[in-house]
Amino acid sequence: MSGAVLEVRDLEVCFGDVRAVRGVSYSVEAGEVLGIVGESGAGKSVTSLAVMGLLPRHAKVAGSVLLHGTELLGAPEKDLAAFRGKTISMVFQDPLSAMTPVYRVGDQIAEAVRIHQKVGRERAAERAVELLDLVGIPNPRQRAKAFPHEFSGGMRQRAMIAMAVANDPDVIICDEPTTALDVTIQAQILEVLKKAQRETGAAIVLITHDLGVVAGFADRVLVMYAGRQVEAGTVRDVYYRSRMPYTIGLLGSVPRLDAGKRLPLVPIEGNPPSPSCLPPGCPFEPRCPMAIDECGLAEPPLTEVAPGHRAACVRADEIGDSGPTPAELFDVGGGSGTTGPGFTDTTASADAEGGAVPMPVAVPPFPVRLPRERRDVVLEVEGLAKHHPLMKGAIFRRRVGTVHAVDGVSFEIREGETLGLVGESGCGKTTALMEILELVRPERGRVVVFGRDTATLTPRERMAVRRHMQVVFQDPLASLDPRMTVHDLVGEPLAAHGYKDTGPRVRRLLRLVGLDPADAARYPQDFSGGQRQRIAIARALALEPRLIVLDEPVSALDVSIQAGVINLLEDLGRRLGLSYLFVAHDLAVVRHIADRVAVMYLGRIAEIGQVDQVYEAPMHPYTQALLSAIPIPDPDKERERRRILLEGDLPSPANPPSGCRFRTRCPKFKVLGDARRVRCVEEEPEVRMLEGDHGAACHYAEKLDVV
After folding, report:
1. Looking at the predicted structure, is the pLDDT value of residue 404 above 50?
2. Which residue did the predictor score with more confidence, 23 or 499?
3. What strands, in cross-sheet order, belong to the sheet with 688-691?
4. CB-based contact 179:208 (threshold 8 Å)
5. Is the pLDDT of residue 113 over 90?
6. Mind listing the domains of the chain with CATH numbers?
7. What is the dihedral of CA 80, 85, 89, 92, to 10 degrees?
8. pLDDT of residue 391
9. Strand-pair partners of 469
10. Is the predicted pLDDT of residue 332 greater than 80, yes or no?
11. How many H-runs (helices) and E-runs (strands) does the chain carry?
């Protein structure tokens, strides 16, 4: 630790009687990147705020934080202010909250410069423009005059990085800097961080839940659980020679772009313990498949298992360098183990007319699937469009333009099939989904559900169709009424369609999704995020639907919880013959669960086809850029992959480019000759089927391996 720029020793943080951080120690040297990973509630962000001295006054902090040998803990606020922004700086997770909304972006960066450097206003303003240019903000002189709300999410994060490097700090702490960003913007931000590090030579502490980002960016990794570190070492040691079952579980939970369905996802059962009520002994013992009696006696210390590699597990030596795979360790051989015993229950319940209603649990475990062309089409979308008027004026409102949210989308889903609808934020995925769920005549185009055109449905027919088409939303806590018990929430669709005795059916549905029937008496707020999503899935299954629409169902979950929900959806779809329309921005998740994928860009389909065809040989430049931007949790592969970085942000749907909508960001367009560019500028490409049912909307489509 003698050459460390930042040295943290035995850091403890308590909020009253709750120990949020328990004895964390690490060091980072100049030019080094330390990744800190773990589930939500592990204490990662609290650790970073304690280092910066930004915790509230009622927090009790103990231990030592040395910056160039100077103790920061207990230092006067005046001394800390002299260090913050100059020697050590921070990039926050939400830049919109971290920036002052009533000051221009350039003024805020210039203020950071003037606080620590003796320069005038004009020189500080010029320095702000230089910094915005450094982090890749287009038209930096003009953008410096804008307010934070006028920036996109990626641009705000770039501006926050510009502010963090304004005074050439020695340490930059990045707290989830890419969490809420699209993968293309995430790739840009990571490149900006690498460039900032090269310019300043700073050490970086990267706090994230994305193991793929750490694999490609960090030199060393610190894994945290229940407020303390449980494994630490070089990236290759921790990823390839994990000695802690928790680390093995985290790595096994991540959907891999390079593996698809070949590797099963391995969820870690249960939830992290509350900091206020830690179990005796090892905090991971209740969730650990390797737990023995000794684990419950005392918390294991962090000991060295190899040179520079430490782990907190009494059985670390038994795991060894060639230890069990995640699937072997967490025993997922016969399925995910997440769906519970519900599939063996063949009891029927009585419907409103007194007849028997077969439950989905009576379906054979693996129904025979017919070839795709012989299966019925459950959803057909043809030329779907949705435009919103762009209005101006407070009193005398007038239309000044049109937002082309969805502008001619076509696809179909067949029985027992999952279609993944992917693309950046703002491309029109959710708008298309809502137009389908409305079950009314669309503004333009045609939507056919179970062979019925929604434009011709009567109210009675629409009610009948809704029974067979259900939806699961992104945020289950927002979509589940907090005043209703789980029994009432799951049974509400049944009551709406005339079922009387819903109790037995609700209990079977809860077992079906891996929950205890006794949970029916509890409320949504009593459950974890993954459990709430299971409740939402049980509610969607109540009426035995044929098609379920899923809007970002796992984006807000930790990877370990996410894996359990994905396995559940995959298992249910296979056993019950369900069809899914799976809307997501995470292409790695989509590859694992989907049969076919449709890539959207600015209201239109850019590429569509079988998931393996699209992922292994993408034809559209946009798909190629998306896939190349997704990090893989494999240090060697991630650092050798080809990167295709897109410049700029998504154009406004109120003013889409002429011709090909992607041409303003397209790397292929830039290398075309003038004669070939004319076609891209003047002619909008339609989806052309180039190999079987694999098509792309590009005049010059060609295959490229980017995974």
Report:
1. yes
2. 23
3. 469-472, 547-551, 579-584, 418-422, 596-601, 604-610, 694-696, 688-691
4. yes
5. yes
6. 95-168 (no CATH), 373-594 (3.40.50.300), 614-696 (no CATH)
7. 100
8. 86
9. 547
10. no
11. 26, 26
